[in-house]
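Write out this protein's structure.
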Amino acid sequence: MIKKLMENIGEYKKQSIITPLFVTGEVILDIIIPLLMARLIDRGIEGQDSQEIIRLGIALFLCALVSLFFGAMSGRYAAVASAGFARNLRRNMFARIQTFSFSNIDRFSSSSLVTRLTTDITNVQNAYQMIIRILVRSPLMLIFSLIMAFSINSQLSMIFLGVVPVLAIGLGIIIHFAFPVFQRVFKIYDRLNNVVQENLQGIRVVKSYVREDYEEGKFGRVSTDIFKTFSKAQRIVAFNMPVLQTCVYACMLLLSWLGARLIVEQTSLTTGELVSMFTYTMQILMSLNMLSMVFVMVITARTSAGRVVEVLNEESDLKNIANPITTVPDGSVIFKNVAFSYADDKNKLALEPTNLSVKSGEFIGIIGGTGSAKSTLVQLIPRLYDVTEGEVEVGGVDVRNYDLETLRDEVSMVLQNNVLFSGTIKDNLRWGNPNATDEDIIRVCQIAQADSFIDEFPDKYDTMISQGGTNVSGGQRQRLCIARALLKKPKILIMDDSTSAVDTKTDRSIREGLKKEIPGTTTFIIGQRISSIQDADRIIVMENGEINGIGTHDELLQSNQIYQEVNESQTKGFGQNEE
């Protein structure tokens, strides 16, 4: 895990190395300052030597000034290194997510991925900053202060050998009990993000059903869980200060008592040395305290680091072969004994073994009930998922032998709930072809029957679309998505119930435009309305993950019971089809 994280330091290795060097210089000066103070007291003040006072005073000032500079520089470089480390982590994590197949994404909830990209990486960033600065400073300060304390007076320094283990044990117990609670906090953060995301995505449904109070209550319960759990963790960590203060004051009392006796009775200790011992005492115990806090943060961040590395280590299920094919000959599609399971379990098939042959340029309609594997069937064509058994061929070649980018450039897919992005209408359409001209854009919008409503906007094709396309209707959004897909000039066009939000007249016009303008493109249209697919070259009827029947509209009306029932339910009371 650590090795994987360190790979993301990248160009910030220099800052990561310089920071400990400045910290070391700062520690050395902080150790020297108490010695100078002791000499200032013993030689200058008690010896009444004004020249020594001035000389040592200047030395103290310079040491403090340089120490301040080293501290500031170590803080600056630590901040740059940790921020850069976090930037690289986010960039590499986001890039890794972009390579995921649908099955990879299914393993992580969107709320969890958001938490990992934000909260978890921030925790790792803070821990890294503490590691390269405080985790270097604290042990050095502890070791050097102990050495200096023993060099001054070994008898008094024995106090530390008794107090330090007590402090270390106390801090260890605190960390032991706090860590599991912090782990629970991050899991609740995932729930919080899920609630927020779900509410924002479904805000129109929430308002239409007047469920604002319910959503507020749900958010409040998760927030309360975070508050209670985090408060519990902080209450445990809060014991750190009383333990530290107890040890500090115990050391002070023992040093004062024993130090006074050594000064008065044995004269083996000077006043200045006693003062420096007090300073070293604070440095030793504060170093232990900072060390404990770093450990708490590092241990807390370990959970976040594990979640980040889990995403970085996730390998896409879909990969190119060594020498992939980069040209798709035509739009023919063949399913050879194809079966598919979302769980990658042959005993839990979403699509039963299927054989199907579609000629290039053929218009195929697909109809079936919910859960009949209509979408599953077509998602295997652009290799959004890999088959569990069998093989899918496009242009006579197994899709697994194609370069993924090449294959998907030749297969345009329009989903029922396709998404538009923030930007102008032109910006969204050019997702299909970044180099498309204005004439190309107008042409595909005419085919998709989108030009009529676009011309009504004041800014026409430069009209701004809000995130998700929330400022256009469902039917308008679907037509824009169809136009975007057509700009790719694909060999295969898949429309997964993508005209469900438009009226039957517009639906018919879109289909007529497709037949007229892209006759050589193999077209798959999944529809709930028979009127959307009845003029297809062939219609596939799906039922329970299997092909129940294939034929033209008239053939299926004569031979397929499911198609007959759907047709009857949609035309009952009208005496004819919706068209």
